[in-house]
Write a structure and sequence with these properties.
This protein is mostly helical and about 170 residues long. It has helices at about 5-35, 35-65, 85-110, 115-145, 150-160. It has a single domain (about 5-160), classed as Ferritin (Up-down Bundle). Helix 1 (about 5-35) packs antiparallel against helix 2 (about 35-65). The N and C termini lie close together (about 10 Å). Bound molecules: MU-OXO-diiron. MU-OXO-diiron binds near residues 20, 50, 94, 97 and 130.
Length: about 170
Amino acid sequence: MIKKEVTKLLNEQINKELFSAYLYLEFVNYLTEKGLMGYAHWYRVQAQEERDHAMLIYDFLHYHGAKVELDAIDKPVLKADSVMDVLKEGLKHEQFVTASINNIYDLAKQNKDFLTQRFLDWFINEQGEEEANANELILKNEMFGGDARSLYLLDQELMARTYAPPSVQIG
Ligand code: FEO
């Protein structure tokens, strides 16, 4: 039911989502070393969400009898001299993922693969949310990150993020 070309891109997307988790764990490394445990916690939860995204696509392909092919995950590289650099890398990465999801949606549409389009609706909304979150982190850091006391409070606020597994229909 899922077209071959679409299956190929969905498999690549599994890899991109797992890479996202890996990249965000690299962010956690940097932030932990800086003692910013709230920011580190926020990205640790984000890494968990990325693994969930990968597994949703994995389950979707299996459920519909399409072949899942796992590829090697690239080593994440983070070049950052400040928390702001990390946050900007986060936004840039989410924009890359959004473009990738949009590309699969477009191919599914061209192939009249309605099942995949319906499945990806959740991902399109999720990407909107993830870019908004990344922008908000940047904005708040721009406003308050310059002063140590405010940064401390901001870091404490980010500690409150909770993890909730996604609920997405795959069948
Ligand atoms: Fe799964 Fe942050 O994209």
